[in-house]
Amino acid sequence: MSDVSDLDRTRYPHWATVPTRWSDNDQFGHVNNAVHYFVMDTVINDWLRQHDFDVARGDGTINLIPETGCRYLAEISYPDVFEVGLRALGVGRTSVRWECALVRGSDGVPVAVATSAHVFVDATTRRPTPVPEALRPSLEGLVVEG
């Protein structure tokens, strides 16, 4: 995972805003850590749908998540918003590794950095299949060198 103590927003080619909800706060008065994963998953899947990859379409290829990780840096509470930066750490033959920077909208403080991987698989056999060719250029456009 990246060091986001000095977050460089230009290292994340795609940004989205995700509101917190009243129900996201836990008994400690901040957004529960599990919500961070929902936020990351939402931003990634919205991005995929915007780039014409939608598992609901039923074209035979789906994406499964074999790995996730999250480093929590600061609290966020409702009614604040997450600003989420998305980039690809790498695009392989059958997979992509993602990184999301989650930032508190009210003051720009980094809240968390989260990673995950997607493996593209055949929907029936669940065996790895190549990254869809139509999607590959867009994914590669999310990779930031250096």
From TrEMBL:
Keywords, alphabetical: Hydrolase
Molecular function per GO: fatty acyl-CoA hydrolase activity
Keyword Hydrolase part of the UniProt annotation: yes
Pfam families: 4HBT_2
InterPro entries on file: 4-hydroxybenzoyl-CoA_TE (IPR050563), HotDog_dom_sf (IPR029069)
Family: Belongs to the 4-hydroxybenzoyl-CoA thioesterase family.
Protein name: Acyl-CoA thioesterase
